[in-house]
Amino acid sequence: MPEVRCNDMQVNVAGRTLRLVQGDITEQDVDAIVNAANKTLLGGSGVDGAIHRAAGPELLTECKRIRQEVLGGAYVQTAQPVMTNGYRLKARHVIHVVGPICGIDPNPDRLLAAAYRNCLQLAAEAGLKSVAFPSISTGAFGCDVRWASRIALGTIVDFLRGSGDAAGASEKDAAERIERAGMGEAKARDAATSHHGPGGIAEVRMVLFTRADYDVYAEALRAVLAES
Ligand code: AR6
User: Fold this and answer.
1) What are φ and ψ of residue 156, in 5° steps?
2) Is 48 a catalytic site residue?
């Protein structure tokens, strides 16, 4: 199956492309794919398992190193993204983020929006041009797809329009965030001093695994665009 089909929904938001794709996120040829991870960062089922299988064992080795050396053994916080290499994936990077667990975490709407926004901000600060997301929290973490689709697409559209602009942050702040997110110090400094902000991201892709989820996201995208 081709990676992007001609009948995938695609809209222009402030000069950038927002595309809905039905397919497998591990096959996407983008600068970074986002992983719906858990707090251990050490893999799991669902999209997390698929990404680790496709990327190869080097991905788990890097995740273990980040847990030990960057996070001092602590769990990753919900909505705080961590970037690694993509290894055997077409994508050069994986951005791992933990979404809210519905029915358990308070303020799941705020946390889910923060998860999307923080990933986009990290990607922009790292100078990435294209990012693909799965439907975070709507599998094992139990959130309703209709609810999640409105938050995901509303947050992405707002970010692309500039209200999630990272350009206001100082380069030092940006470098610190990227360093915490798992890049080396020198690389983080380079990334933070390159042009960043949403101006850098040319395409955001939402990759839905099933046709049913694709249809829900397509309806949500029409609603989000009509409301704004
Ligand atoms: N490509 C795109 N989407 C996928 C793929 C794929 N290859 N595989 C599954 N999905 P889930 P969560 C969709 O459960 O709810 C893991 O164990 C799937 O159909 O992967 O955030 C982690 O380690 C669903 O729509 O993520 C955590 O413990 C969506 O991805 C926990 O699950 C998200 O489902 C995270 O739960």
Assistant:
1) -65, -45
2) yes
